[in-house]
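Q: Can I see a sequence and its folded structure?
A: Here is a first one.
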Amino acid sequence: MRRRALTSAALASSVALLLSACVTLPAKPAALPTDFVPEPTVSPGDGTGALSPDGFSAAQRMTVRVRNVGCGFIATGTGFALDSHTLVTNRHVVADAKRITITTYDGRSIAATAASTTTVADIAIITTEESLGSAYAFRAQEDPVEGDVITVVGYPNGGRLTSTAGVVLGPTTDPLGGAVGTVLATSASVEQGSSGSPVLDEDGRVVGVIYAKNYSNQSFIVPVSTLNTLLSEESLFVPESSCTTSSQYQGLP
């Protein structure tokens, strides 16, 4: 893919959008299918040695759909497993939740038991009692640089599991004004529902987390250096409140 130059002026003139898919709650919302298994796709960084017997890579198996049923709305996003009971997504994906449900690549539905967020970046941590599986994120220690090829794995529009490639365009300030420090812009095309998607380098390591896009179709990621710092400082996270009682979210039924 041809490298495109990134300028602060171009970014400043583009309106950034959060990427959780949010709609008004209908009178009787249809349930998500429980038997849906997405078709496997191969993307950069998916070596044949990483494929499971069902044809999915480790990156695809660790990536989950996040469904937030709130008070008067339903939102969907993406997340990825850090271990068998912990996953990363975006803060805005879990905001004002009444109930959070995780759907794995093979169609399993798992209830979240707790969610916590930080104001440093658009990052949230979700925990579960049921196992998320055996594929977990391997995080890089350094941020990608301009021109690096990356792959985004997620559930755009709350639909099927997909992979899309792009390149890092460079560092910039948060176009939404909510993050401390710099974020990275990329050319990877993402949609609503892609919020929280892992961004992988060519070796399959997580180098960032998708959280927004602009009208120029540039996507923005929380860099892995910020993610690693947050995960090493538990005090930076606070329990997310439920929309029903303003109490801490505890996986309400």
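Q: Show me another, different protein.
A: A second, unrelated one:
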Amino acid sequence: CILFDCDGVLWTGATQVHNAAEALRVLRARGKRVLFVTNNASKSRAGYVSKFKSLGLEVAAEEIVSASYAAAAYLAQTGRFRAGDPQGKVALVLANSGVEQELDAAGVAWIGGEAWHPPLLLTPADMCSLPLDSRIGAVVVGWDPAFSYSRLVYAATCLRELPGCLFIATNGDHADNIGRPTVAPAPGAPLPGAASTSSRQGSGALEPQPSSSARAPGSTQPSQGAAAASPVMRMMP
């Protein structure tokens, strides 16, 4: 099985990388299984199928592993977030439609998303009297075009005060080259604020996590810079 990153490997912006389609054709003709992995959670797998097609690349949704899909698959496997379960938990989403669509496809109950605009929190009194939804069992952070200080405060308060609330970070990148030389804040930009105020670290949906137990081959000492699969990756189907 051969894993391909997407941005910068198969395409740059709206342009296919030279000979990308031919490379995939040759690999498949030789019987190789090909999967496409991306920590970009701004699209669902269906959205990525459309993106691939627009660039002349034929790819099935089942061949795509995106951070949005990984987050949804993880929450679905916990069994705590079943849509329609009155006793179940819901995920608070600070992300766009790519994450929303994958959560819907996985049958995960969620609130928030792009359309959610909490009340303005202008004073310490506003923050101290903030009512929390006790159904929230996870906070999922992705590319959040509707980002606001109030959304960040609410999410961090949920993480700090709601017992067992999971913290899922779809993408830890803090900056994104959106068209040289322009650099914009990336989905990971709000994470330090949420992490520092809640004393929590988000579990990356696809990105490896540092591991003190990972060892170099043939060594009894931890490998410098070693990483292990994130909790989300380990629970994916």
